[in-house]
């Protein structure tokens, strides 16, 4: 009996895997086709606000795939696929194209620009000549490097710390800024924060979520990361703030910027244009205090 069940379970599992594999195969083919046509990506922009003044300070560019049948596909469903199938470099190129064209539009319309953060995949970051190529690209587009923040994760530097630092330094020397994304989830030692040429640190959403449970642990970790980062001169960002309770609690720590659904969801470039226009009166939720 047990044997039979085992076999059935196995069979079910197998066929589920086949369905999944076929799904991925067709999605991969469609991703390849879309990248060849070069017409399926849209960037959404999520604002970051000052915790103290409520001012709009920057935005993170987040890619979506506008699929004719499946609708808007989130990056979690195709970035890992692109990374596995060697499509991440052309994908990364087209993401840069989209961001450059959106920023150019804001510049042409005379909007006071705010810095835009772009997520990098490891393969992009480790491309030979990356810092020079990217600097050429933005300078050809007339976009000052000070307007660009590159977001990368601790894990990208793992095992190749010295080479990674060299690239970060090169980016920094060319005027770009670096944000350490999803901080606290990787394996690197806090020690490397001392020397890394980063300008901001984004505390991972998982620590913010844990604030709701009022666990001493999560509060202690946020407090420690935030005060250490600020001591080291980094701008501290809390990612994934969803509730007023979280917003209120974060006021107790050395948090500079808030990014999350509580203040604003990622929005289309058009919606972000409107926000840029009204940024001085940008309404953000007020607490009772
Ligand atoms: P990330 O860089 O950590 O981006 C933040 C993610 O958290 C975004 O998800 C954003 O929509 C989501 N988020 C923001 N505030 C909240 C909140 O209050 N609650 C919750 N539950 N989520 C919130 P998204 O857009 O689905 O992106 C997921 C990940 O995909 C990103 O994580 C990043 O690692 C990757 N990604 C997105 N765009 C790009 C891109 O252009 N290039 C590369 N290489 N990776 C990208
Ligand atoms: Mg990010
Ligand atoms: Mg993040
Ligand atoms: Mg994340």
UniProtKB/TrEMBL annotation:
Segments passing through the bilayer: none
- Which part of the chain is the EAL domain? 24-280
Residues included from the entire protein: 551 to 839 of 839
The name on file for this protein is Diguanylate cyclase/phosphodiesterase with PAS/PAC sensor(S)
């Amino acid at each position: 009996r047990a044997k039979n069940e085992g076999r059935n379970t196995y069979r079910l599992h197998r066929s589920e895997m086949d369905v999944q594999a076929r799904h991925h195969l067709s999605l991969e083919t469609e991703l390849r086709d879309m990248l060849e046509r070069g017409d399926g990506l849209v960037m959404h922009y999520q604002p970051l606000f000052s915790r103290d003044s409520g001012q709009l300070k920057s935005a993170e560019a987040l890619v979506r795939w506008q699929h004719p049948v499946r609708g808007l596909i989130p990056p979690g469903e195709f970035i890992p696929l692109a990374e596995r199938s060697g499509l991440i470099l052309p994908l990364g190129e087209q993401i840069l194209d989209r961001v450059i064209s959106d920023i150019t539009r804001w510049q042409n319309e005379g909007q006071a620009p705010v810095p835009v953060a772009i997520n990098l995949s490891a393969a992009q970051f480790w491309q030979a000549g990356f810092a020079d190529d990217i600097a050429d690209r933005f300078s050809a587009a007339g976009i000052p490097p000070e307007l660009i923040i590159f977001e990368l994760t601790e894990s990208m530097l793992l095992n190749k710390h010295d080479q990674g630092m060299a690239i970060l330094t090169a980016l920094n020397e060319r005027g770009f800024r670096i944000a350490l994304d999803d901080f606290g989830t990787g394996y690197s030692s806090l020690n490397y924060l001392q020397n890394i040429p980063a300008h901001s640190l984004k505390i991972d959403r998982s620590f913010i979520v844990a604030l709701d449970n009022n666990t001493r642990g999560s509060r202690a970790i946020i407090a420690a990361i935030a005060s250490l980062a600020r001591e080291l001169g980094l701008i501290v960002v809390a990612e994934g703030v969803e509730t007023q309770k979280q917003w209120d609690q974060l006021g107790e720590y050395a948090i500079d910027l808030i990014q999350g659904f509580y203040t604003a969801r990622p929005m289309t470039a058009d919606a972000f244009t409107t926000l840029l226009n009204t940024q001085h009166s940008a309404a953000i939720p007020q607490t009772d205090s």
